[in-house]
Amino acid sequence: MTDPKIPVTEDEIHAYVDRELPAERRGDIEAWLASHPEDAERVQSWRAMAEALHARYDSVANEPVPRRLELERLGRLPRKWIYGTIAATLAAFIVGGATGWLARGVAARPTTFQSFTLDALDAHRLYVVEVRHPVEVPGSERAHLQQWLTKRCGWDVRAPELSAAGLKLVGGRLLPGPSGPASFLMYESASGERFTVYTARTETGTTQMRYTSRDNEGAMFWADRGVGYVVSGGTDRERLNQVARLVYDQAEKSGG
Amino acid sequence: MSAFRQSVEAMIPALRRYARALARDADIADDLVQDTLVRALRSERLFLGGDVRSWLYTILTNLNKNRRRSLARRPQFMPLLENNPDASGTEAEGRDIARALATLVEEQRAVLLLVVLEGMSYREVADIQGVPIGTVMSRLARARAHVKASLESERPALRRVK
Predict the structure, then answer these.
(1) B43 CB near a chain A CB, below 8 Å?
(2) What is the rounded distance in angstroms from the CA atom of residue A188 to the CA atom of residue B158?
(3) Residues of chain A positioned with their CB less than 8 A from the CB of B67
(4) Cα–Cα–Cα angle for A181, A160, A144, nearest 5°?
(5) Which tens digit of pLDDT belongs to each residue from B121-137?
(6) Which residue of chain A has the CA closest to B143?
(7) Closest Cβ–Cβ partner in B38, B39, B148 for A45
(8) pLDDT digits (tens, 9 = 90+) for A164-201
(9) Contact A190/B162, CB-based, under 8 Å?
(10) Which of A28, A204, B35, B108 is the residue whose CA sits 20 to 30 A from B102?
(11) A161 and A126 in contact (C-beta within 8 Å)?
(12) Least CB-CB distance to A129: which of B69, B130, B131?
């Protein structure tokens, strides 16, 4: 009942239970547990937890697969029909969310540009959950989308090419911005991760790129010659930065 | 049927199990699986080899995150749990673990389920969630501590609002 020479960490105890620990260290953990009843009790409770999870949910994996999940059916069905069920489930929440969005009121606002970014984040949160109608014009009509948004917004709206970041254009829509129209573009990766690019007129001329986040969404924002850009998506700041850089570089090249 | 489709098909039972524990509602869970499969089939040509299993879990985890973002804007609902006072020992236990899962924040619940229920490695979970391994381990530790406390407490744990 001697302690191992190197003290055992919390992480190692988890790794021991999950069989992630190198074999040569397992003996040390076992010795440690033998002399630390509180840790041994925790290990015991984690194992009981694992058993309870399997007891509760393994039966789901043993059920026959419902017909609606058969691949052959899914491959045949038109896309719109497939999203029907889940879209219907979401619709109620989205309507609720939109009401909240419009009824935000005039709470104290830090700066116009900051609130502009929050508008963009709101739009991001509102539409990123949309399965059936995330956009008004699909990405397959890129030229038409750019032309339409440019005409309505009054500055050159270009949908940047983000395939270098593994993102494909889903499409875009026109939104009411803080002072006139705003363009809103949505991108998606093969695994369903979504990013949006929001642009609108701003009184702030040109600024550096900055970062802000709220709840579970991050955004990079900047202004360039009177047009504000907000790239929103997820909490992974490095990934967001990568996407925002691509947008920034392409806006720069096209001359804003 | 292509090898790709075969490996997707083989994963359906496990995806249903994970989705059920993650979403805690049978219909929503199967909607998530269905949407995951549709995306997988649609992206077959984008899939350049690699681990189909991890990829499917990644899609499902992302879809659920998107779904929950919309829920987060609404007042919290009571978890959808069966509440049968005459439940036998095993059923009562299942109810307790389901209720304990409901008290976890999304990322922690996903980590706990992927590691414990689906038997994925820390590395795989880190890739699925797009975070470093250290984050996976701290989420796992917090999830375990939280579920343990929740199972041990007499009264039903309060739903944590993020």
Answers:
(1) yes
(2) 35
(3) 86, 90, 129
(4) 60
(5) 999 999 999 899 999 99
(6) A46
(7) B148
(8) 999 999 999 988 877 788 899 999 998 888 999 999 88
(9) no
(10) B35
(11) no
(12) B69
The reply to whether residue A74 touches residue B38, judged by beta carbons under 8 angstroms, is yes
Contacts of A131 in chain B (CB under 8 A): 35
Average pLDDT over residues A208-234: 84
Chain A nearest-CA residue for B35 = A83
Q: Please determine, for residue B39, whether its predicted confidence score (pLDDT) is greater than 90.
A: no
Tens digits of per-residue pLDDT, A123-161?
Answer: 888 888 777 778 888 888 899 999 999 998 888 899 999
Chain B contact set for A53 (CB, 8 A): 21, 97, 113, 116-117
Q: How many CA atoms lie within 13 A of A46 on its CB side?
A: 22
CB contacts under 8 A, A 164-193 vs B, are 190-193
> Which string of b and e fits A189-225 if b means at least 16 CB within 10 Å?
bbbbbbbbbbbbbbeeeeeebeebeeebbbbbbbbbe
Please judge whether A82 and B17 are an interchain contact, meaning their C-beta atoms are less than 8 angstroms apart.
no
- The answer to whether the CB of A34 falls within 8 A of the CB of A10 is no
Provide the pLDDT for residue B50: 72
Question: What predicted TM-score, i.e. pTM, was given to this entire model?
Answer: 0.56
Q: Residue count of chain A, please give it.
A: 256
Residues of B in contact with A124 (CB under 8 A): none
C-alpha to C-alpha distance for A197 and A120, rounded to whole angstroms: 8
